[in-house]
Write a structure and sequence with these properties.
Elements: H1 2-19, H2 24-34, H3 39-66, H4 71-87, H5 92-104, H6 112-149
Helix pairs in contact: 1-2, 1-6, 2-3, 2-6, 3-5, 3-6, 4-5
């Protein structure tokens, strides 16, 4: 049952991403990485994911505006790449913070308008993905509670 729900969430997330002109991979990944068995944990994980990404965007923007391209910037990027893996076991929001900083290092040469669209697409995709996961869990729990109240066992 749970695997079917996750698969449906990925399909729905991809479809919403394609139809809303947001990167469907970002939407599907946002939904996939936060969905769990518990609504509260999924919500907290989704909020943590969004905070990590937003903090990463702010940190990357500061880094790109304050550190010129060159050896110092490259050393910082190597340190950030290390922090992506070092932060993974601590908390997903830290992993996403450093991963966003690392990925954003390629934003240096983008025009301001393209940069704004890129950031908007990333944040929008994550919000939609977390929303899809939360809606799927609410529907799953409602369906499960309805089946239990009718005296039947929910299928797994």
């Amino acid at each position: 049952g749970y695997a079917l729900i996750v698969a449906a969430v990925l399909v729905i997330g991809s479809w919403i991403g394609q139809s809303s002109r947001t990167d469907p991979t970002i939407v599907a990944a946002g939904a996939f990485f936060v969905i769990g068995f518990d609504l509260r944990k999924t919500f907290v994980g989704g909020v943590a994911r969004l905070i990590g990404i937003l903090a990463g965007i702010v940190l990357a923007t500061l880094l790109l505006s304050q550190v010129p391209a060159g050896p110092l910037f490259q050393i910082i990027m190597v340190a950030v790449a290390f922090l992506v893996f070092a932060a993974a076991p601590i908390h997903p929001s830290f992993l996403l913070l450093f991963l966003t900083v690392f990925l954003a290092s390629g934003w240096r040469d983008l025009e301001a308008e393209v940069l704004e669209l890129t950031i908007f697409e990333k944040v929008t995709g994550e919000i939609v993905g977390v929303g899809v996961a939360l809606v799927a869990l609410v529907l799953l729990q409602t369906w499960g509670n309805r089946n239990l109240s009718n005296g039947s066992q929910p299928s797994s």
